[in-house]
Structures are given as C-alpha cells and as structure tokens.
C-alpha cells in the first residue's frame, strides 16, 4: 500500500454499510473511530448479536437516512473529549479512501449535533498514513450527490434483516423452512403466534405487543395466517402496515382470498377465467341457483373450506339438491360451481412470488377422489405450464395484491380456470415436486424490497 497523507478532514466511504460518501474528521487523540448513528437497536441471538442503526450522512439533512446493520464485535466504554463516559457497540467495516481499502473498528454513538458524520481515530490510521494537521481533503473528492441518485441502491450491501413469521405452527415444514433459510442468509427470523399479539391503536405511535413487551421494529413480516384466525390475524397485519412494516401479503388481499365468494367476485371483476359459480342465501332459490351453473355434476363448496374439506361433488341433480339442503340445514354459507370434467381430478398449483411464477406442479387426487389436495392423499409432479396458464396465475395473484400466492388452476377445454388463490401456500409439496428452493426466492424478494436505501422524508413547513 502506497503512503497516504491525510488532512484533518477527508472524504471516505464505508461500502459495507451502504455509505458511499462521508466527511470524516481525523482525530489522533481518539483511539477508536466513531460513526454518528441514531435509533441504535440490538437484535439476533445472544451468541451472534447484531446491531441496526440509522445514519444521516449529510449534516443538517435529516430527510436523508441510510439504514445499516452489522455484527457486534465488542462493547466498549468510550470517554468523550468533554469527559463523559459512554458504553458503545463496536462493529467492523472496510474503510475506502482514494482507491485503498482496509478494515477498521467503529463505535456507534448518537451525536446529531456533530458536523462530521465520522471520526477517524488512531487505530484506523495505519503505518502507511501520515497526517498533515493544517490541511484538509488531500485525498480524492467525493460528492453527496450519490445520495440523490439510484446509484446508492445498486451499490447497497447485503444487510442482516429482522423478520417476523406470523404463524401458530412453529414446527411445520413451511415455517421451519422460513426460519432455516432466513438464518442461513444471516437474518434474524422470529416466529410470532398471531393470536398472542395485542395492539396499541393510536394515531401517534401504533404498536404491536407480545408476551408483555412491545415487539421490535421488523424489516419484514411474512404472514402464515390459519383460516380459523383470519379476522384477528388480518387485524394484526393491518397494525404492522400502519407502523410501516413491509408485509409480504397485505391484510386486504388475505381477507379477500379467504372468503371464497369475495374471491370469485374479485376474479370476475378482473375478467379472469374460473368455473361458472353461483351463490344464494334463500332456500327457495335452490333450483334456480343450480340452473345458473348448469347441469349436473356440480360442485358444492363451503365458503370457509380449506384443504379440500367441505367440498362435495354432486353427480346428479337430486344429489346436488340433497347436499344443498344439508348445508342449509347447518346454516352454512356455500357456493355452487360447474364441475370441469376434462380436468379429470387434476389441478395445477402455480407458486407466484413478486409477480413471477417461480414453480408449478400438477396435483392428482387419490384413487376415487376428485379432489387433488396433497393433504388428502393426492400426489404431485413437476409440470410445464403454458403461457396462458402463466398469465392467468399472475393476473390472479395481482388481483389480490399478494406478493406470495398459490394459484390453483384447472385445465378446461376453453382455457385455464382459477379454482382458488391461496395466500398462505405450503412449501413442502412444491419444493419436493420441483426440487426448487422456493423459500430462497421469497427471501430474494424480501431483500430486494427492504435493502438499505435513502429514505426521503418530507421537510416540515
């Protein structure tokens, strides 16, 4: 490394933290370097703790914020020039100056009034650096303009995220995969039982609490809300949305997709193909209801049905009337649908993430069963879908605003028909059938959505 000469102030960059341009004051009286940060918060396991914090890289510009995170390597007591002692977290980061780069230790402290966002101490100034205390900016000039362009986004480093999985089943395949894959990428993933959350609802500081404590600020929430707790689960998701947390699936999309009547109305409004469907509340309309759908065989489906439960094939008109009368006797809400004979007990599950079909499998019902659900003994295999099927799956997921969805299609003589849009699709069947890392693709999208970038805040006045 060539000999470098620093003045008392220099332009530097900390690329691993997503900070491409900072003015740093050189202070040989200080042992350790310091970065002026705010909202400092610890997360992760006690064995491998991490810290997250915000940096305003331009003095006086609180409207430009960079979110950073890094592993904690130490915690030290630092005495400032005015004699005040402070216990600070210490991280490691590469320091870039004039085409040269070397690792340094950095302490984190909130000194919003300081003009220099960074203080370079003795440890950062290795043997190849000489100091000219009467001069400044002897190294190449940088510019704050980088914070006003998309360049920052392209150069943003990988950042450890704090992610919540809303699930009551911490030990099922899908939830465990979400934890395993997230942690393998260096993120902290916490499973939160949705029904044990409670909320402080107010306009100034909305919060979500859990086990007697306020939940921390999450980078993202992955909802896996069971059908039995949909209303309360969506209320919790709405609270996270109010706070400003990125939710992979929003409350409105989950609510609409879970109500089969509402879901079919949404699909119809977007002119998305689906089996002919009818609904009525009055028992006097049974024959007219069936006539709207067509001739037997017909499907009679409870609005709250999941995993093939509450779905009955009525092969004759009389059988259909009997099933409808039985459901009405239970005061249950149901749909009547045309039975797509050519599907022959098969459907196609398309897994959509971020407006892309990332995997597709064909599900075949067990012997003698028209339902193809894997939970009911069906089998699955990888399948190549047509462009029409791909487009239909994407349009269906988009109709509900879902970032992650399982779209079930039937292959009919007049094109693909959407059977259901599942806002909490399982990963086990489709990962095993296709051999694809579906959960990894979901994390790709989460990382792209919440990676550090300038946050422009509206100035007061």
UniProtKB/TrEMBL annotation:
<comment type="similarity">
    <text>In the C-terminal section; belongs to the RimK family.</text>
</comment>
<dbReference type="InterPro" id="IPR004666">
    <property type="entry name" value="Rp_bS6_RimK/Lys_biosynth_LsyX"/>
</dbReference>
<dbReference type="Pfam" id="PF05618">
    <property type="entry name" value="Zn_protease"/>
</dbReference>
<dbReference type="InterPro" id="IPR011761">
    <property type="entry name" value="ATP-grasp"/>
</dbReference>
<keyword id="KW-0436">Ligase</keyword>
<keyword id="KW-0067">ATP-binding</keyword>
<dbReference type="InterPro" id="IPR013651">
    <property type="entry name" value="ATP-grasp_RimK-type"/>
</dbReference>
<dbReference type="GO" id="GO:0009432">
    <property type="term" value="P:SOS response"/>
</dbReference>
<dbReference type="InterPro" id="IPR013815">
    <property type="entry name" value="ATP_grasp_subdomain_1"/>
</dbReference>
<dbReference type="Pfam" id="PF08443">
    <property type="entry name" value="RimK"/>
</dbReference>
<dbReference type="InterPro" id="IPR008503">
    <property type="entry name" value="Asp_endopeptidase"/>
</dbReference>
<dbReference type="GO" id="GO:0018169">
    <property type="term" value="F:ribosomal S6-glutamic acid ligase activity"/>
</dbReference>
<dbReference type="GO" id="GO:0005840">
    <property type="term" value="C:ribosome"/>
</dbReference>
<keyword id="KW-0479">Metal-binding</keyword>
<keyword id="KW-0460">Magnesium</keyword>
<dbReference type="GO" id="GO:0005524">
    <property type="term" value="F:ATP binding"/>
</dbReference>
<feature type="domain" description="ATP-grasp">
    <location>
        <begin position="264"/>
        <end position="447"/>
    </location>
</feature>
<keyword id="KW-0648">Protein biosynthesis</keyword>
<dbReference type="InterPro" id="IPR041107">
    <property type="entry name" value="Rimk_N"/>
</dbReference>
<dbReference type="InterPro" id="IPR021109">
    <property type="entry name" value="Peptidase_aspartic_dom_sf"/>
</dbReference>
<dbReference type="GO" id="GO:0046872">
    <property type="term" value="F:metal ion binding"/>
</dbReference>
<keyword id="KW-0547">Nucleotide-binding</keyword>
<keyword id="KW-0464">Manganese</keyword>
<protein>
    <recommendedName>
        <fullName>Probable alpha-L-glutamate ligase</fullName>
    </recommendedName>
</protein>
<dbReference type="GO" id="GO:0006412">
    <property type="term" value="P:translation"/>
</dbReference>
<dbReference type="GO" id="GO:0005737">
    <property type="term" value="C:cytoplasm"/>
</dbReference>
<keyword id="KW-0687">Ribonucleoprotein</keyword>
<dbReference type="Pfam" id="PF18030">
    <property type="entry name" value="Rimk_N"/>
</dbReference>
<keyword id="KW-0689">Ribosomal protein</keyword>
